[in-house]
Amino acid sequence: MTIKIAVIGFGNIAKAIITPLFDKKLLDPRDVYCLVNSKKSVDNIKKNYKYNVNIFQANSKDSEIVLNCQIKLLSVKPQQLKNIVGLEKYTDSGNLLISILAGVSLEKLSKRFPNHICVRVVTNIPIIIGKGLTGIAFGDEITQDQKRFTKKLFENSSKIYELPQDLLDIFLALTSSGPAIIALIIEALSDGGLSGGLQKHLSEELVMEMIIGTITLIKDTNLTTAELKNMVTSPGGTTITALRVLENKSLRSALIESVVSASNRSKEFC
Ligand SMILES: NC(=O)c1ccc[n+]([C@@H]2O[C@H](COP(=O)([O-])OP(=O)(O)OC[C@H]3O[C@@H](n4cnc5c(N)ncnc54)[C@H](OP(=O)(O)O)[C@@H]3O)[C@@H](O)[C@H]2O)c1
C-alpha cells in the first residue's frame, strides 16, 4: 500500500524539504497532496514546479483529500495556523503530523490537531542545498515507524539532532536565525574591505573564502577557537588591534544576546 503524504502549506521551506526526496526518487510526486492558500499559488505550482504533485487550494472541496492523508507535513507560517480548519473532523487516531512551524509547541499542536501524533521540527535554510540542520522533538506517543519516517524526510538534506522540546527554541535561534546573522557579518566585513579601497565583489569573495578556510582549518585540525585566535594574534600587531575594537564595541555580548533574544521570541509563539 502506498502512503499518501499531505503537505499543508507548499511554500519555500516545504519545497526545500520535499524536492530532494523527489530528485532522489525516495518519494513519488503522485503520492504527495499539497495545500496552499491562494489560487495564484495553485496555478504557479502547476505551471512552474518541476514535479507534478497533487495541488489544491485551502477550503476548496478537494482540500478534503489532503486533510484525509495519514501523514501530514505542516509548513504554513505560524500566524497562518489559525486558518487551518477541518482537521478535527478526522476521527481515526494515530495520524502523524510533522510541524516545522517556528516556536509552536507540541502541546499546542496536539490541541489544535486531535487524533494526530505530533512531531515538532526545526530546520534551516541551507536544507535547500542539502546542508541543513534539523532538530526534532518527538511526542510521547510516537511509534518507531513514525520516528523512522520523520527522520527519512529530513536526513537526505540535513544533519538530524533528536532533542528534548525545551531545547528547540535555542536550536532554532542558533541554526535558523544563524544564517541571517552570518550574512550580516559577511556584509559588514565586506564593507570594511570596501572602506579600505577593495571592489565590493572582491571584498565579499575574500570574506567568504576566509570564513570557509577558517572553519575548515578548525574542523580539520581540531584546533580550539582560542588556539586559533592566539596563532594569528601577535603582540602589538594588527589582529589584536582589530579584536580590541570589537571588545570595546561589545560584539561578543551583542552576538550572545542576539541568540538569546531569538530563542525568547520563539518561546513567545508557544
Ligand atoms: N524561512 C526560514 O528560514 C524557515 C526555516 C525553518 C522553518 N521555517 C518555518 O517554515 C514555515 C513556512 O515558512 P516558508 O518560508 O516556507 O513560508 P511560505 O513560503 O510563505 O509558505 C507558506 C505556505 O503556506 C500556504 N498557506 C498559507 N495559509 C494556508 C492555509 N490556510 N492553508 C493551506 N496553506 C496555506 C501558503 O500558500 P500561498 O502561497 O497561497 O499563500 C504557502 O504555500 C514557517 O512556519 C517557518 O517558521 C522557516
Describe this structure in words.
This protein is α/β, with parallel strands linked by helices. 49% of the residues lie in helices and 15% in strands. The chain has 2 domains: 5-164, 3-Layer(aba) Sandwich (Rossmann fold), CATH 3.40.50.720; 178-269, ProC C-terminal domain-like (ProC C-terminal domain-like fold), CATH 1.10.3730. An 8-stranded mixed sheet has the order 3-2-1-4-5-6-7-8, sandwiched between helices. The longest helix is centred in the C-terminal third of the chain and has 22 residues, at 200-221. The relative contact order is 0.09. The model has no long low-confidence stretch (mean pLDDT 93). The site of NADP nicotinamide-adenine-dinucleotide phosphate (NAP) has 27 residues, from helix 1 and strand 2.
CATH class (first level) name of the largest domain: Alpha Beta
Helix content: 40-55%
Q: Specify the CATH architecture of the largest domain.
A: 3-Layer(aba) Sandwich
Biggest beta-sheet profile: 8 strands, mixed
Give the N-terminus to C-terminus distance in angstroms: 36 Å
Radius of gyration: 22 Å
Quaternary organization: single chain
The small-molecule ligands in this entry are:
NADP nicotinamide-adenine-dinucleotide phosphate
Strand content: 15-25%
Using brief descriptors, characterize the structure shown.
270 residues, alpha/beta, Rossmann fold, ProC C-terminal domain-like fold, 2 domains, 11 helices, elongated, binds NADP nicotinamide-adenine-dinucleotide phosphate
